[in-house]
Design goal:
Elements: E1 4-6, H1 7-14, H2 18-27, E2 34-35, E3 42-45, H3 46-60, H4 65-72, H5 77-116, E4 124-128, E5 131-137, H6 144-160, E6 167-172, E7 187-192, E8 202-204, E9 207-217, H7 221-234, E10 237-239, E11 243-248, E12 252-254, E13 257-270
Antiparallel strand pairs: 1-3, 2-3, 4-9, 5-7, 5-8, 6-7, 6-11, 9-13, 10-13, 11-13, 12-13
Helix pairs in contact: 1-2
Length: about 270
């Protein structure tokens, strides 16, 4: 093995440009072991090959040049250990943030795929299972700001309680559906998984429901309710409570506004014929 390497040789070994090595020199990140005063040529030692590889590793991991320079000044094993352990913690945080970003993007992809499918959603008669929900009452059911802030509070509550898959439960009074251009929301809740518990949660008993999936812009949700009410009337059902909407936190932009996938449940009972 050679004892010294020219800048062009080290650049080739590290698969980087000579300009980058000159920049590292000027910044004090990787200073050549020897500089020929007569011609200014830079020469690097064998150990500096490994220094360069580690600098490249740190750079690829997202470290700033200032952080790399800081590490290059560390001379004792204990300080090196402290520095590297701190940076591993930083990397783990970044990995977790990237995972969350990936999952959010993946959820939007799945949402777009389902909303783009041509399969017609059909009304179903099902038994909605009992569930635990933490509700927040809406003071002004048509106030978009209050509604948005409530969703934000519930999301933060879900994150605080380490709920992985956040689902929102919305209560809508049936009598209010056709009284306004927009559907008033009386309460918004967070579904509490069985293995979790939140102070103030309430139990919604299982209900016999008519259900239809809404997968369009939110301002078209009345059409989904109209389809449900038509089915209820045509099949001799009677509404016996407020509807429950269940949706996740994925909201996607569409041609005519924002939308998402919401399952709408209306509790009913069969009208007995005499």
């Amino acid at each position: 093995m050679k004892n010294r390497y020219k800048i062009s040789e080290l650049a080739k070994i590290g698969d980087i440009s000579k300009q980058t090595l000159i920049f590292y020199h000027k910044k004090g990140i990787l200073v050549p072991e020897y500089i020929d005063e007569s011609n200014g040529y830079r020469f690097y030692s064998n150990s500096q090959i490994w220094d360069l590889f580690f600098i490249i590793t740190l750079k690829e991991a997202g470290f700033s040049l200032e952080e790399i320079k800081e590490y290059s000044k560390v001379k004792t094993p204990s300080k090196s250990l402290e520095f590297l352990e701190e940076k591993v913690t930083d990397i783990n945080k970044k990995i977790e943030e990237l995972r969350k970003s990936r999952d959010t993007i993946q959820e939007k992809i799945l949402c777009f795929k389902e909303m783009s499918s041509n399969l017609e959603e059909k009304v179903q008669v099902i038994e909605l299972k009992s569930m635990k929900v933490y509700f927040i009452k809406i003071k002004n059911p048509l106030d978009e700001k209050e509604i948005a802030e409530t969703y934000d509070k519930l999301q933060r509550l879900g994150n605080k309680n380490k709920i992985k898959d956040i689902l929102y439960i919305t209560k809508v009074k049936q009598k209010d559906i056709y009284e306004n251009s927009e559907i008033p929301i009386s309460e918004i809740g967070l579904l509490v998984p069985e293995e979790h518990s939140i102070l103030g949660e309430e139990l919604i008993e299982s209900k016999h429901c008519i259900m239809l999936r809404h997968k369009a812009t939110f301002d078209m949700i009345k059409l989904t309710y109209e389809n449900l009410h038509r089915f209820i009337k045509e099949n001799n059902f009677e509404i016996i409570g407020d509807s429950i909407e269940i949706g996740n936190e994925v909201v996607v932009p569409l041609e005519n506004g924002f939308g998402g996938i919401v399952d709408i449940y209306i509790p009913v009972k069969k009208i007995e014929k005499f």
